[in-house]
Design a protein that fits this description.
By secondary structure, this protein is an alpha+beta fold. It has three helices and two strands; from the N terminus they run E-E-H-H-H. The radius of gyration is 17 Å and the shape is flat.
Length: about 120
């Protein structure tokens, strides 16, 4: 297994990477970095661990939405599952849920920003 040195939100990480997985890992790093920087740049949250948790939740939510929409598309049109474009995310609909999730996370983390 090879190792890649990457930067996420300005910090270096040495990650193990399976042979032939460089492009996928670098794509994942880019997505995580972009998600974390977006939260940081919004200015409301400063703690790196909270930013990481929120970015992970956002990415997991987007993946879940994509999976649900892909499943719906495949059920509605088995011969052309992605032709309708219904597999795209509807970001406007997720905002109230996201705000509620963020509030619950802040409450759970409390003042010190730690889960445990």
């Amino acid at each position: 297994m090879k190792q890649l040195d990457v930067q996420i939100m300005g910090q270096s990480y040495l990650l193990g990477c399976p042979e032939g997985g460089d492009a996928r890992l670098l794509d994942a790093v880019e997505k995580v970095d972009a998600a974390m920087c977006k939260i940081r740049d919004a200015g409301k949250i400063k703690a790196r661990d909270r930013i990481a948790v929120l970015a992970a939740l956002n990415l997991a939510f987007e993946l879940s939405e994509l999976e649900v929409n892909t499943l719906k598309a495949s059920r509605s049109s088995p011969s052309t599952p992605a032709a309708s474009g219904s597999g795209t995310l509807q970001h406007g609909a997720e905002q109230p849920q996201l705000a509620s999730l963020l509030q619950r996370l802040d409450t759970a983390l409390g003042v010190d920003g730690r889960l445990l």
